[in-house]
Amino acid sequence: MLRECFYHVSNSNWAYAYTKEKIHLRFRTKRDDVTEIAAVTGDKYDWDRTYKEYPMLRIASDAYFDYWEATVKPKYKRLTYGFRITAGTETVWMVETGVYNEQPYPPGGYYDFPYIHEIDLFTAPEWAKSAIFYQIFPDRFANGDLENDPEGTEQWGDTPTTDNSFGGDLQGIIDKLDYIVNLGVNAIYLTPVFESPSNHKYDTLDYKKVDPQFGDNAKLKELVEACHDRGIRVMLDAVFNHCSEHFALFQDVVKKGEKSKYADWFHVREFPIEVKDGIPTYDTFGFFQHMPKFNTANPEVKEYLLDVAEYWIKEIKIDGWRLDVANEIDHHFWRDFRKIVKAANPEAYIVGEVWNDSLKWLLGDQFDSVMNYPFSNKVLEFFSSSYMDGYTFANSMGFLLMRYPQQTNEVVFNLLCSHDTPRVLTCVGEDKRRLKLCVVFLLTYIGTPCIFYGDEIGLTGGGDPDCRKCMVWEPEHQDNELYDFYKLLIALRKDYDVLRQGGFRFLKADSGDSRIIYERIDDKMHFTVWMNNTEEETVLSHPMETDDWKDALSQEDVVPENGMMNIKLDPLGYRILYRWL
């Protein structure tokens, strides 16, 4: 055994309370190096009478490591533990003080989980585990009120640019709620709706006022109430990292310089406020001079922005916040943000925009979730061609799953594309078969899925602004077959708890083979998903011990032959099987 690859720490995503009674322990070893691991556990004050061993399951792998996990239920909410690692005839023990050839006498030197404090338990909103989000860019979804169209509104469906507007508004969303309900989604994520001079609204002027081109505060309340009546949650987008250069308090700094009482509201490196050699003398989002960055460590700024966060939850009853440029704001701010938001609505869902490893924000004191762009990158990389094999893809997904605790994985915000990326259909070369593989994976994978408006009827588009095209509403110009496919897969996910909260594992993901099989399983049901990410017809085989499998979409019986399931798949085809346990 390569002992240098052993890894465990008694915190974060390696040892954490999953519920008020259960602890998850994870352990890392070299890939394909260890055959068996057991967590040896007990209470540090009564080891002999509470001693218990828990076999660990290899739940994921990446290119270099295997990851093992056990769910432990300590008798007294305290846990002292170590690991017994076996490979063939060799057995060693690892505890906090090191690796030993003989088991160290417990409990001294063992790992310690002192106590499961319910107040420290990270619990995301339960409803988020069952949510299927639909992201809407309001200016491009539907124009329901011609009276509030901004000056220069262009004809619906014209080419989007960085600064043109098409008249989409809140009334348009209200008018199309039946469409949204029929699709089957049960949550909406709206990009910013607050007053702003731009079409995207990520440079806010007034944080407590809906932009007049979208409607007003009463219209937003009407939308939220109409959604709630239909069982749809609503999440708004907040931009607390920066504001518009026309924001009144920033303009006070522009005019008065360091004498402004708001000078410390922003990160001004040099007065006067100006742009030198293309770089503003104040910090901004990127280097965009029209988006000055807030100093969120300033108590007055913090109070102002936290009041905004609380206001929309209390007054309009929104169900959550998506937080723009979340990784560029200090952690102290986000900790206080969570307290304010959860006090206003304990079931509010908090999603940060972080494009990289986000563990530091996902330990229970800041966000519930993040936008999982690493997921979309790996899924699109695999399904957009047949170049990558299943082994590499499974390694990538295993690496991502091990980044976070289980309760985070259950609600991480998974997406295939958004207003900031090319459209998924464009990413897969406009091959609907490849798009369907992506969507099947999205809707049968662990986490909270999100669909970008129009993907379900075949919208294409490159990067911003092309990805922000107007929604197509004429039935003859919509891909109705694709819409029915989305609707079918959404309904499947909603019908079965196991697809939302069950365990996930690859059953087949081999080197040199782009065909994969993976499973979702809980104590009631077992799903297997078979995918042929090649351009050739194939028969995919895997051992199956029982003969009670059904096709999840057709309800046809699917019977193995001599203990082997042989599934015929079309080029770029898939099949979903299930059985009751």
UniProtKB/TrEMBL annotation:
GO MF, any single term: hydrolase activity, hydrolyzing O-glycosyl compounds
Transmembrane segments: none
Coiled coil: none
Superkingdom to which the source organism belongs: Bacteria
Gene Ontology biological process terms from the UniProt entry: carbohydrate metabolic process
Keywords: Glycosidase, Hydrolase
Classification via CDD domains: AmyAc_CMD, E_set_CDase_PDE_N
Pfam families: Alpha-amylase, Alpha-amylase_N, Malt_amylase_C
Glycosyl hydrolase family 13 catalytic domain boundaries: 135-493
Family: Belongs to the glycosyl hydrolase 13 family.
PANTHER family found in the cross-reference section: ALPHA-AMYLASE FAMILY MEMBER, MALTODEXTRIN GLUCOSIDASE
Protein name: NplT
Organism listed in the record: Paenibacillus mucilaginosus 3016
